[in-house]
Amino acid sequence: MSLELTPVQTVACCSPLTREPLSAPEAEGIAPLLKALADPVRLRLMSLVASHEGGEACVCDLNDAFELSQPTISHHLKLLHEVGLLDREKRGVWVYYRARTEALTNLAALIGGQAK
Amino acid sequence: MSLELTPVQTVACCSPLTREPLSAPEAEGIAPLLKALADPVRLRLMSLVASHEGGEACVCDLNDAFELSQPTISHHLKLLHEVGLLDREKRGVWVYYRARTEALTNLAALIGGQAK
DNA sequence: CCATGACATAGATAGGTGTGAATATTTACA
DNA sequence: TGTAAATATTCACACCTATCTATGTCATGG
């Protein structure tokens, strides 16, 4: 087991941006999360998965929503999975991605949160 | 007056990510905002400015917080200003940046918001 | 009017990123 | 076993970006 934290694990432990200056290590832990979201395709992917019924969607559904090659979608999904924004589950031939809503909630609290 | 909206103007008009799928134009409007935040230096700059007394800070203060050249900091500040996250005001020789907290609030609502 | 200090801009460069084509892997099923 | 379908991986490439150095602009004080 590694001591490395995924960005999603890092984000939960900081007071909001506007409360006190973010330390350099904190900032470097959080930036990858924002980077993962900071792409139109990945934003839509997150939104598609999160708003999909059951909170999950299979790759086949997602591919159809874009005019991009299947490997490109797969690449973006992998990125979102690696930072901890999407969970992955293989069921038969299909792979289902599920949004980690508590990760989004934590991130939102960090960006716009008022309280400690 | 242009019809182009800054990312900050775009973000205020969408329901949360998890509520319904983001449209492609919406996603392309919002991504630049996240991109602007998705850098450790800019995250710390935003945090420094937002948490500074009076909600503003002059560039001289900010430069000292990093081991980066002054032009590099200036570059990052410009980026944050262009997307609408920072306001800029010149007073004498000094330039003061001020965080647009309502922009952060809107962005947070979009990412982690539960309600419409 | 000139020198100095605060900040911005321009140009250059190394490294990162989004994309597609080709290919591999894995599962289901005949 | 072998074929087809769903998804991932590899490789290559054009474009973007974070940074620095050098230089420019602008306001202040002598």
UniProtKB/TrEMBL annotation, chains A, B:
Q: What keywords does the record list, in alphabetical order?
A: DNA-binding, Transcription, Transcription regulation
Q: Name one GO molecular function term.
A: DNA binding
The protein's name = Putative arsenic resistance operon repressor ArsR
| Listed InterPro entries | ArsR-like_HTH, ArsR_HTH, HTH_ArsR_DNA-bd_dom, HTH_MetalResp_TranReg, WH-like_DNA-bd_sf, WH_DNA-bd_sf
What species is this protein from? Answer: Arthrobacter globiformis (strain ATCC 8010 / DSM 20124 / JCM 1332 / NBRC 12137 / NCIMB 8907 / NRRL B-2979 / 168)
Which Pfam families does this entry report, sorted A to Z? HTH_5
> Which residue ranges does the record assign to the HTH arsR-type domain?
22-116
Domain of life, per the record? Bacteria
